[in-house]
Amino acid sequence: MYGLVNKAAQDFVIEGHGEETWRIIKKKAGVGEEAFVSMQPYPDDITYNIVGAASEHLHMDANDILEAFGRYWIKFTMIEGYSKLLDLAGRTFPEFLNNLNNMHAHVAQSYTELKPPSFFCEEIDSKTFKFEYHSHRPGLATFVKGLLFGLGEHFNIEVEVNYIGNIENKENSHEYLVTYS
Q1: Residue 156 to residue 149: CA distance in whole angstroms
Q2: What CATH homologous superfamily does 83-180 map to?
Q3: How confident is the model at residue 85, as a pLDDT?
Q4: Cα 127 to Cα 159: distance, rounded to the nearest angstrom
Q5: How far is residue 4's CA from residue 8's CA, in Å, rounded to a whole number?
Q6: Distance CA 96, CA 159 (A)
Q7: CA distance 118 to 107
């Protein structure tokens, strides 16, 4: 993952639990970097180790941390200068979700080693859709759930996200039922 993700994880921990907690988690995770470079790729293990160390130190389930981090990611990217890109991806919640693949393709022009996930939306009715997330990275289904809640906050709407499950015969592919108002 790129340093931007690890920098967001660092800020997420510091904002919620303070600098000293970050130092402890960083040490438990075996992270030697003093600072993450946003546009530099890092091994995925660093990010997974941060989540594992945070789970252990904070006595929280890793999925709860990932969901909260997903919510935080939306705010973080806005602060880090990606607000225009998010605005261009869509003016409404469903428009934004339907443009996620295009947005990631645009981001990949700058982040040349990016291996983005892919998404698919299927409208069920005017306020409900099935949302699919496909990735080569395991274990991020609850992070995506948090992202959906974070996007609801961004668009000032109420969002309900129900995890349907892993898509049969597709490793690291997940389905959600999303309702919004």
Answers
A1: 10
A2: H-NOX domain (3.90.1520.10)
A3: 81
A4: 10
A5: 6
A6: 14
A7: 13
